[in-house]
Amino acid sequence: MTGVESPLPLLAVENLTMRFGGLVAVDDVSFTAYRREITAIIGPNGAGKTTVFNCLTGFYRPSAGRLVMHKGSEILRLERIEGFRIVGRAGIARTFQNIRLFAGMTVLENLIIAQHNPLMKASVFSLAGLFGLSHYRAAERTAVERARHWLDRIGLTDRADWLAAALPYGAQRRLEIARALCTGPALLCLDEPAAGLNPRESAELNELLLGVRDEEQIGILLIEHDMSVVMGISDHVIVLDYGRKIADGTPAEVRADPEVIKAYLGEDEIDNTEDKGAAVHPRVLRDAPFGRSSA
Amino acid sequence: MTVASGHAVDKAAKPPVFWVPLLKDAILAGLVAVLLALPLVGLQTYDIGGGALGIRTHFDWVVIAGVAVFAGRLALRLLRQIYRARPTGRSAVLASLAAWGNRQAVPITLAGIACAGALPFLPFSSRYLIDLGTTVLIYVMLGWGLNVVVGLAGLLDLGYVAFYAVGAYTFGLLTHDLDFTFWEALPFSGLVAASFGVILGFPVLRLRGDYLAIVTLGFGEIIRIVLLNWASVTGGPNGIGGIPRPSFFGLPFARPAPEGATTFNQFFGLEFSPDHRVIFLYFVILAMALLTNAFTLRIRRLPIGRAWEALREDEVACRALGINPTTVKLSAFAIGAMFGGFAGCFFATRQGFISPESFTFIESATILAIVVLGGMGSQMGVVLAAILLVSLPEFGRAFAEFRMLIFGAAMVGVMVWRPRGLIAHREPTLRLGPQRATR
Asked: Could you read off the pLDDT of B225-239 as tens digits, one per residue?
């Protein structure tokens, strides 16, 4: 399942800790995400998955730990970059658990805003754009072309001029992913992209993510409860529980890990199932969509 | 009431009308009206001689108010129920009218500009009408300026009049102390107002919605109170007088020519008329307003304009896409304030006299009402609302004390029929559509 050559490290999270007052939401978590790989972060609700994302994308400043991003030959320390600059500097784009589109604007506009920084530079902070200089118009055409490329990929080209709010739920999820991709990221962070999707849409999403990984050669970091997505496309799974990392490995390894099963099914069940043998666990994990997750 | 409900049963046969909640609601509204009317119209003081006051009661008026509100509320709710049942009601007519307006936006705009340009030369136009047109245009320009902040960037600003005041006082002080003319002072007015926009912007960067509104409201009052009390600079409540009128490319409008200068009428060989200056002022504000509009329409389609709208929609998503909320907000405040400053400069030169009294909260409220009533973010809506809000009290003069009542009723009417403003349509800043058609 992993890449052909030895995978290139893209993001190294080292001893990340995030405290909110007395609450330790993320406790000494370390993991590495690689280029051309899909890394899934799973865990029961409240395990600290979204907090990790918020630290990576600059919404929170970590209490301790290092977030090292390898961008070409450059090595960046994410926790030292101002929040909104992380997209541009480090190339980390994200989506949100509860969809955050620009609802009152069109689908195309959503994708153009994602390219705000290059366009702003091309328009010389809007001065050149004000007088309609050709340089800016060319930049805008490029932006529209890129938007159109992603619209074609997510199958929304014929709805480009719709208001984003008018799209059905599944299309809104895809649009949010396309919007993140329009920033030209090196690492794409998706917070529960399959939440609320039906099985067919889920399968389409899998296909899209695998395609993005292989064509764009980027890393994908994924929080997901839908096990068909996690087990189907992840190259690498990290399991969090109560803010700590309890497992890290390929989907098959994680699925068989007794710690993971304990975290999801609780102590009692593990006592019962242990008599019946470890072979049960993979099936249990695949079929039961982990605790409270399957909304 | 029994008659009313009996009559209604026959009518209710066709569309189902729910009478009990309807009547309950109307009775409640009537009772509230009676309670309000009791002290307001029911009791009236009058002079009984010797400087003492007696109280007269007018309970009949209270009853009239209660019945009127009851009947009005009942009729309104009834109409709504019936029209909700039949989609071809009045709101559908308004909606189709709005849709036609959107399709014909360009011809309507051109016709509007042509009408505005021709106004002073129409046979029925008078000095009064041109003056009124000038006032309307000042409010249109202020509305367009505030539209950048409220309509596009979604930052609720209740103290916009502060920038209007800053623009006016910048010109007032520059001409008072340094003998600047209108045209020399105009850019400075905009610049100083824009700086004040940034100064206001910094402390409110973290605020949104109601909290932002309260701070901006306070800012507006601070500016006014400073102008009122810093008498050594601003002249305090006496204001600044003797502000020069604008000249026509260096030609003043005056009957006796100032020494060594040619007046406008001498240069063009016309008989002196005070109307020349009024008409000229009208065209100056028309040009300024149109420039504001052109600028706003243009900047909406640029990255910064789209970032404003994105900020209005979702600030968190903006940050995640690498947009710096600080600069985006500050630029919106600065640009909105700049137009306010330009309008203030014009106001000063038109009045020839400014004092803090002209920049009270009611001005901010009027400008905000123009933006909200017109439809947030809609340029054309601002024009319609400005015409409505400024000229309605003027035409209402014939009704003397009832004009504010008519004004209020019109506002309520618009909010009932078009709750999202007169023109709630938003034109996308770019489309894929036409390109697809060519493929």
From this structure: 998 898 888 887 888
The verdict on A183 touching B (C-beta cutoff 8 Å) is: yes
Nearest residue on chain B to A163, alpha-carbon basis: B428
**Identity of the residue in A85, A113, A158 whose CB atom sits nearest the CB atom of B307:** A113
A28 and A111 part of one domain: no
Residue of chain B whose alpha carbon sits nearest to that of A136 = B302
Q: Are residues A125 and A240 in the same domain?
A: no
- CB-based contact (8 Å) between B106 and chain A? no
ipTM higher than the 0.85 cut: no
Q: Is B49 contained in some domain?
A: yes
| Structure confidence at residue B435 as a pLDDT band (50, 70, 90) | very low
Residues of B in contact with A148 (CB under 8 A): 432
Same domain, residue pair A283 and A195: yes
Closest partner residue to B314 (CB to CB) among A100, A109, A119 is A100
Q: Domain of B318: which CATH number?
A: 1.10.3470
**Count: domains in chain A:** 2
Alpha-carbon distances, residue B136 vs B144, B248, B286, B349, B370 (angstroms)? 12, 22, 10, 16, 11
Nearest CB partner across the interface for A112, out of B306, B317, B436: B306
- Portion of chain B with pLDDT greater than 70, in percent: 86
Task: Kindly tell me the burial class for residue B25, based on how many C-beta atoms sit within 10 Å of its own C-beta (0-12, 13-18, 19 or more).
Answer: middle
Number of domain units in chain B: 2
DSSP SS3 for A91 = coil
